[in-house]
Amino acid sequence: MFTHWLEETVEEISKRNLTEFTFSTGKTPSGHIHIGILREIIICDALRRIFEKRGAKVFFYLFMDDFDAAKRFPYYIDTEYQKNYLGKPFALIPCPFEDCGCESYARHFGNEIISTFEYFGIKNEIIWTYDLYQKREMQEKIRIALENTDKIKEILKKYILPTLDNERKQLFIDMQKTWIPAMVICDECNKIQYKATDGSIQPNRVIKYLKKEREVLYECPGCGYKGKKSIYSGKLKLNWRVDWPAKWALFNATCEPAGKDHSVKGGAYDTGIEICQKIYEYEGPIKLPYEWLRLGDQDMKTSKGIVFTPKKYMELADPEIYRMLILRTNPMKHISLRMEEIPQYYDYYEKMENLFYGIEKPESKEEFDFFNYLYPLTKINDVPIHKPSRIPLKLLIFLSQMQNILTPNKLYEKVISYMKTLNDESIISFEAFKALLKRTENWINEIKSYITSLKDQKAIRSILNKIEIFTIPETIDKKLSNKLSDDQINGLKTFRAYLGDNDYLDADAIQNKIFTIAKKDLEIPPRKMFEAFYLLLLGSKSGPRLGPFIQMLDKSWLMERLNQLL
Ligand SMILES: [Zn+2]
Ligand SMILES: [Zn+2]
Q1: Quick one: which ligand is closest to 226's CA?
Q2: Quick one: average pLDDT of 306-320?
Q3: Which ligand is nearest to the CA of 194?
C-alpha cells in the first residue's frame, strides 16, 4: 500500500534506474488556456520536486505546440480575423489584439499562462514547438519518419482500425494509400491545412519524399500551389501522431501525463509509444492518465464558452489551495473546482497544516502520512520551520465587506490586534494585507454573481449558510425609526450607553449584553433586539453573528450610526 498515489508513479519511474529524469507536458496555445491544464503540469512539478530532492538531475518541459494549425478560433476572436488566419500555424498568426506588442497569436495566449507559473510554484522550461522544428535534431526526426512511412502506417493501422466501424475502416484504408507523416507550410498562402466548405480539414500533406535530395513535394489544398521544399527548411511538421513520439525520443521523456482523450485505447499515446520504440528506438515515457478538471458542473473547453484561466484563479484564491486540490486527488478521478467551496478548501488546508506541524493530532497513522507527504508538495516556496501565520478567511470575508465604512488603515489595525489575540506575533505587511483584502473582495463578488445565476433556492441558501455575505449601507433607512418599536429603540439606547462606558469589548460580551437587554431589561424576545441591530447596520432583518460583527466595526462609526437613529 502506498501512502500517496504519487508514490506508485515514483516507484515505476525509479525502476528505470536513471540518473536523469525528464517530465513533459504539452498544450496548443489556441486561445486563453484554462486552469485545467495545470493539473498535468502540477503533477509533473510534484514529480520534479520528489526526484530533485533525491539529488537527481531533472528536466521538466512544457511543449507549447504553436506549430499546430488554427482549425477554429474561440468565440472572442473577431470573425473577419478568423477568416484570414484559419489553417495557419498559431506561431505565424499575429496577436489578435491591437497595440499588444507580442510576437504572435501563440505567444499572446502562451505567455499569459506561462507568466502565472511562478505564483503556482511551477518550475519548468518552455519549448515552443515551431522553434524546435527549426532545429536540425528535430528535422532529423522528420527524415526518419519519412524514411519509415510504411512502418508507421502499419503501426497506426494496427491500433486504429479495430476502433472504427466498417464504413470508417474503408475510409481509413483509402486515406492511408497516399498518406505521408509530414505536412508543409505552403510557400504561397502560409497555410498548413485547409478547411473545406463542408467543414472537413485537409492537411497540406507531403505527396512525395525525394530521399536523395532530402526534399518533399506538396500540393496545397487551400490555394492549389505546387511546391518543393527541403526537409531542413523549417517549414515541415510531423503529423500529430508522430510529432509526439519524435519529441519523446529527442528529449528522452521519462513520464508524461495524458488527458483522457489521448489515453484511450488506440489513442495517440498508445500509437506514440510504439512509434517511439520501433521508429525512434527509444522506450518512451511512462503514461500517467488523468481525468479532466471541471469548473463546478461544467467542462472547460478553450473553444467554447467557459474561460477560467490560472490568472483569473489567482485574483480570487490562493495558488497553494489549487496545488492541494490537484495533488490530494487521484488523477483518475475528476475534480470539480467549486469557487463557492473555497472556505472548505481552506479548512482542509489548515487541518493538513496543523497535522504537519504537530498542532493537531491525526486520527490515524495513514492520515498523518498522507498529509505529511502532501503538504510540502502544495507549498509555493520552501516549507517553513514553523506553521505560517494566516489571517482566517472568515475574518477577511468580514473585513473586505467593511471597506466602504472603514479605511484600509483601520482594517489593518483590526487584523493586527486580532492576530495578537491568537498569540501570533508575526506581522503581515500593510501591502500584503491589502492584496489579500482585494482577493477576498474579488472572490465574494464572484460568488455573488454565481448566486444570481442560480435558480435553485436551496442551493443558494446552502452557499449563504457557509459564506457570510452582507452590504453595509452608508446611510440608514429614513423610515427606520417608524419601523422599530419603542422597546427596540430603548434597547438600542441602552446599548449606546454601554458602548460609551467601555473601551474594549469582545464578541461574547457584546452578544451577551444584547441578550440581557432584551430578556432582563425589556422582557422581549432577543430575536427582536437582534433584528433592530441588523436593520440599523445592514438595512435587513438578518446578518452574520452579531457579537463578532459589532466587534469588528469601528467604535466611533457605530456611535455615529446609533446617534443618527436615536
Ligand atoms: Zn498580444
Ligand atoms: Zn497554399
Answers
A1: 2
A2: 94
A3: 2
Extract the C-alpha cell encoding 530.
437582534
pLDDT tens per residue, range 365-378:
999 999 999 999 99
Question: Which residues, including other chains, have CB under 8 Å from residue 6's CB and lie 6 or more apart?
Answer: 43, 46, 47, 50, 327, 373, 377
Q: What is the pTM of this model?
A: 0.93
**Could you please report the per-residue DSSP string of 102-165?**
-S-HHHHHHHHHHTTGGGGT---EEEEHHHHTTSHHHHHHHHHHHHTHHHHHHHHHHHHGGGS-
Centre of ligand 2 from the C-alpha of residue 27, in Å = 26
Sheet holding 226-230, edge to edge: 206-210, 215-219, 226-230
Ligand nearest to the CA of residue 105, numbered in listed order: 1
Angle at 356 between CA 351 and CA 360, to 5 degrees: 55
The C-alpha atoms of residue 318 and residue 350 are separated, in whole angstroms, by 13
Q: Which ligand is nearest to the CA of 94?
A: 1
- Rounded to 5 degrees, what are φ and ψ at 356? -60, -40
- Return the sign of the alpha-carbon dihedral for residues 399, 403, 405, 407: positive
Run of H or E residues at 347: helix 342-356
Tell me the residue ranges of DSSP E strands in 167-281.
Answer: 182-184, 193-195, 201-203, 206-210, 215-219, 226-230, 236-238, 255-259
* Res. 304: pLDDT tops 70: no
Distance CA 88, CA 127 (A): 19
Q: Give the helix/strand (H/E) hosting 20.
A: strand 20-27
Task: Compute φ and ψ for 524, nearest 5 degrees.
Answer: -120, 160
Distance 219 CA to ligand 2 centre (A): 8
Mean pLDDT calculated for residue range 30-48: 96
Mean pLDDT, residues 34-63 taken together = 97
Q: Kindly report, residue by residue over 207-217, the tens digit of the pLDDT.
A: 999 999 999 99
| Cell numbers 486563453: residue | 32
Tens digit of pLDDT for each residue in 165-200?
Answer: 999 999 999 999 999 999 999 999 999 999 888 888
- CA–centroid distance, 419 to ligand 1, in Å, is 43
Residue 397 sits at the vertex; the CA angle it makes with 395 and 400, to the nearest 5 degrees, is 105
For every residue of 509-532, DSSP letters joined together read HHHHHHHHIIIIII-S-HHHHHHH
pLDDT digits (tens, 9 = 90+) for 519-532: 999 999 999 999 99
- For residue 93, the ligand closest to its alpha carbon is 1
Mean pLDDT value across the chain:
94
Query: Looking up cell 481509413, which residue turns up?
Result: 172
543: which 3 cell numbers?
A: 446578518
305 confidence band (pLDDT: 50, 70, 90): low
